[in-house]
Amino acid sequence: MHLCISSECFLGWGGFCKVKTGRVFHQMALEQAPDAVMVTTADLEPPGPSIVYVNSAFTRLTGYSPEEIEGKTPRVLQGERTQREVLDDLKRSLQRGQPFVGRTFNYRKNGEEFLMEASIAPLRDESGNVAYFMAVLRDVTDVWRVEEALRQNERLLRHISDTLPAALFIYDIENKRLTYVSRELLAIIGYLPGELTSSDIPLESMVHPDDLPLLEKEMLKLQHASDGTMVEAECRVRHRAGDWKWLVLRAVVFDRFPDGSARQLLGVAIDVTESRRLREQLVQSSKLESLGRLAGGVAHDFNNLLTVIQSYAEMAQSVLPEGHTARTYVGQILKASEQASNLTNQMLAFARRRIISPQVFNLNELVREAEVFLRRLIPENIRMVTALSPDLWQVHADPTQIEQVILNLAINARDAMPEGGVLTIETANVTLDEAYVAHHAEVQQGDYVLLAVSDTGIGMDERTLARVFEPFFTTKEMGKGTGLGLSTCYGIVKQAGGSIWVYSEPGKGTTFKVYLPRATEIPTALPERVERRRVEGGNETVLVVEDNDAVREVAVAALQARGYRVLQAANGEEALELVQGLAEPVHLLLTDVIMPGLSGAVLAMKLREIQPQVKVLYTSGYTENVIVHHGVLIEGTAFLPKPYRPAELARRVREVLDSG
After folding, report:
1. Where are the domains of the chain?
2. What pLDDT score was predicted for residue 281?
3. Rounded to whole angstroms, how far apart are CA atoms 611 and 609?
4. Which pLDDT value is given to residue 36?
5. CATH number of this structure's domain 13-140
């Protein structure tokens, strides 16, 4: 209860309180007031005002009786935590003859501290001069404690809100605007909270048009939903920079109209852009893995068929006289089968089923060798630039395979620049840390050698990027590409323990980045390109073991044509029975790796128990078998991949027979 604290109070102290003649009406009213009232003189100069009157409520508040306090300065109530700046504000207000309201800590007679709220106003006499100051005093300690608790809770909630890896928001349904947004929104979509709560930006304009109907549908469910009902929607929201961020929005009813319908929603926005991208990477990787298994199986079967086709065609061509019309036909068969063989080899590379011979080498050497060849393939309107790191780490991979990756990526870049441009091949040492791994699925931390191939061509959109490594996917015209070039690169790099990533935008070119694990072993010289020598035959005994009848028959025919004595068996058990009844030695075992019953490796082991001197040449169109480990040929193993031609078979047989 505030009593006459405005500057309009014109009371002389003689009329306000006549001590000698008894209490007057005003004094009686003040005594009944629930708030403490204190009246002082108007002296502002030292020693300052003195107390001339206090009511009963003052005594209850401070513990001082009128007899104890009257005539003393109000400073008796002050203490250690009385704020000096509040007292200064009080003095300035009273000097100007203005009322003052403020809070500060004061002390009771017993020394107990309390927070006092004071409303102080000048009391003027009949002449308008300030004669006294009247203060209405209240103990607001409990109120202050409640306010402090509320402020503390508000600070805590704001701290929680600002440290959450998500943005909290309150949405006004009626006005379709945000009334509160936490600071995390700045990290998510680039806007400060105040920019969205105080601006006229329509929220609908920030949501992707394809996602807006679903979002509105979900939010509509809350219009008359019961307490505790939560809706969730995943949508794209435009970042301040212009790109789209994927957000998961969860919301509940926060405030209601009197009729129970929703007035405001409390929600949380979680940035799932990276998790979606990682999930898509894993899905794509799984899809490519499945396609790889399918491609590997198909290529294996095709290789058997192509072995038969190529071998018989080559043998037919060898017996046809020059100028014979059929030689042309057979030549076309060989040409077509060679193209089919290249396709199956690419499929095997994508499927990571090729036999490889890895070694430690410096990638710069390989790039320099490939550069000489590439300059013959790159037209004059394309400038080729190489930027090779001088202190490049070593890698452990099959150099022939990695060379194919360089050529495929460079040719792909060439085709992306029909009007000309710049083709750049770079190498560098890089360390992929935890932050990089967190954004790239199936990548391990560590040291890598980077091979980057960039072009300034037409670029690719998101849909093309999502399928760029799929086998048989191509954006080129019919007949201009098989769609296996990039999928081959993918398989080769994966088989080498590395990773390959592509970065592109329409009209801004493309960059492929290949990361190959760093090798610490001593490098070896790259294999020289040797010319094939003339194929020679022989008269040794060769045992051919192959479960595919057509492949076995063509291999037997090809070797017999070269003068070899050839024995044949359809499986391992049959081969062992055949050898046990022989008096003469078997010089070479030519065996398929995967067969019903005994595998090629087990057959070789058992055969050497009978004839220790026998040499072994394995053949297969598939690498998941006992003579290779993760596609790497076991050291010292002679191998002939399918499909093969009679000349290739004869050359490899002769090499193994002549080996030490």
Report:
1. 13-140, 164-271, 279-350, 359-519, 541-658
2. 60
3. 6
4. 92
5. 3.30.450.20
